[in-house]
Amino acid sequence: MIWSTVSFSIIDALWAFLAFCFILAFGLYNLSSYLPKNYNESFIFVIFQDLIRYGKTKQNLKRDDWLRVFDVPKRWFWHFYAVSVSWSACLLFLYINNILQDHPLPSWLTWIMAFLTGTTSTVTESHVPQVTTCLLLLLLWVHSSRRLLECCFVSVFSNGVMHVVQYLFGLVYYFVLGLTALSSEHSRRAPGPLFSQLTWCHVAGCILFLLASWLQHHSIVLLAQLRSGKSGNVETMAHKMPSGGCFELVSCPHYFAELLIYISLCIVSGGLSFTWWLVVFYVFFNQALAAQLCHDLYKCKFEAYPRQRKAFIPFVF
């Protein structure tokens, strides 16, 4: 097998664990509809729902007042992308500085990478700059920058909330994601100068990244327009039935686009990176759960909601 020689590092174990957690959460959520009613009112069920829901999907959840102490505004989503923009830019700067100026990476960063990847080799020791690593860090920065701008200037957030655990997880998530991109330096080393390493995987991945980014941006604009008038001013905070664009096919095209973005990063990594496939596996179930929650809410709230719409992936699910 292609991956038979790949060792299972700590960073792989981390992504595998996250994927397993969301597979379990997705399965339990779908199973809960078949369980007795008294289960849905149990303390364990409420805690579970409190941890997987956020924003509009959490508004009708019956919770004790003490659980609301752990709520933080959903509009704080922009914090995630601010962290990601800063962190990915920092890593990209350090990596390019190593390539152009032959400056070694900080000792704390090489120690973290050695711990996560299980290898003691560093960029300085290889003296072979990796175009894959540069592209991954650059695309992460572009993606995070766009999402930050959308959160600040496009999206119209209501008074929706998320659990503080979800908030802390989001902050740590983008920190680990940047390290995952940098870890590609330790996976496959390509010979030759930087630009001579470009392959069809890099080109195809970047094209898919741009298309998926456009789809996500267009979907977010359509969602924002549900709350603003022709003048662009916010007119309502109510949740309306989305329509237009890919909303005619799925309830959450922006979540589907998020999956495509991570698939594009996997392609950029060569399509054979075990680590990045674990990341895609995690993103799939993470976004599938969020999409299913929104889809179920729309079907319950809007009597005329199109029954042919899928939740997440067009024509499939």
> Which residues form runs of ≥5 with pLDDT under 50?
1-5, 122-129
Question: In percent, how helical is the residue content?
Answer: 55-70%
By oligomeric state, this entry counts as single chain
Radius of gyration over C-alpha positions, nearest whole angstrom: 21 Å
Supply the number of helical segments. Answer: 11
Helix/strand/pairing category: mainly alpha
Q: Largest beta sheet, briefly?
A: 2 strands, antiparallel
Order of helices and strands: HHHEHHHHEHHHH
Proportion of beta-strand residues: under 5%
Strand order of the largest sheet: 1-2
Give the end-to-end Cα distance, rounded to a whole number of Å: 30 Å
What's the count of strands?
2
The best one-word shape is globular
Mean pLDDT: 88
Could you characterize what this model shows?
The protein has about 325 residues and is mostly helical. It is about 60% helix and about 0% strand. The protein is built from eleven helices and two strands. It has helices spanning about 10-30, 35-40, 45-50, 75-100, 105-115, 125, 130-155, 165-180, 200-225, 255-270, 275-300; strands at about 70-75, 160-165. The protein has a two-stranded antiparallel sheet. α4 runs parallel beside α8 (about 165-180).
